[in-house]
């Protein structure tokens, strides 16, 4: 317990579970992949044509995927809470 009477819920870095380690590994793999793909790329989406660094396009797609997963998991958690 801490001085204010609450239990400390923070775990040390080595006390993480398998899901956290897999997540950390995937983030590191994504950063490595993005770092190695720095060339220019032409991105076509519907009527939009943009020339951008490939790392930026990969980062944006990664963030969109993360946001989609976060939104879906948030809805699932709410559904479980309701029963």
UniProtKB/TrEMBL annotation:
Q: Is-annotated flag, keyword Transmembrane helix?
A: yes
Q: Where are the transmembrane segments?
A: 21-38, 53-72
Keyword annotations for this protein, in alphabetical order, are: Membrane, Transmembrane, Transmembrane helix
- Output the superkingdom of the source species: Bacteria
Q: What is this protein called?
A: DUF1049 domain-containing protein
